[in-house]
Write a structure and sequence with these properties.
single chain; mainly alpha
Length: 110
């Protein structure tokens, strides 16, 4: 390893050893993005009002979104080979993805 770079700090880790670091950074980036959206043009009226958020259909849609994402999480796990296990088989393009790359990707999606 380089003297100025500990590469182990750049991965989430097989056992999520750096999971809290990932979550902290992701939360910070998302919070910054949400603040940027809020402050972008302060004089604009909100697209989603407090009244909208209290409607039954709105709340039902949020619940359904949560259910679908929970189902997606449950369905993806059994048949997926996690990237962190790629070290057990070294083929072309198989290795764990760097944490900064995943964070930057998530942030760029916003």
């Amino acid at each position: 390893m380089s003297e100025d770079m500990n590469y182990k700090s750049l991965f989430i880790g097989d056992k999520s050893e750096n999971g809290s670091v990932y979550m902290d950074e992701l939360k910070r980036l998302v919070t910054n993005h949400l603040g940027w959206r809020k402050d972008y043009i302060p004089s604009d009226i909100p697209a989603i009002t407090d009244s909208d958020q209290t409607k039954k259909e709105y709340q039902d849609s949020l619940r359904r979104q949560h259910e679908v994402l929970t189902e997606l999480d449950q369905r993806l796990r059994p048949g997926t080979i996690p990237w962190m296990s790629a070290g057990r088989y070294w083929g072309q393009m198989n290795s764990d993805t760097l944490m900064p790359a995943m964070l930057a990707y998530c942030y760029a999606l916003l």
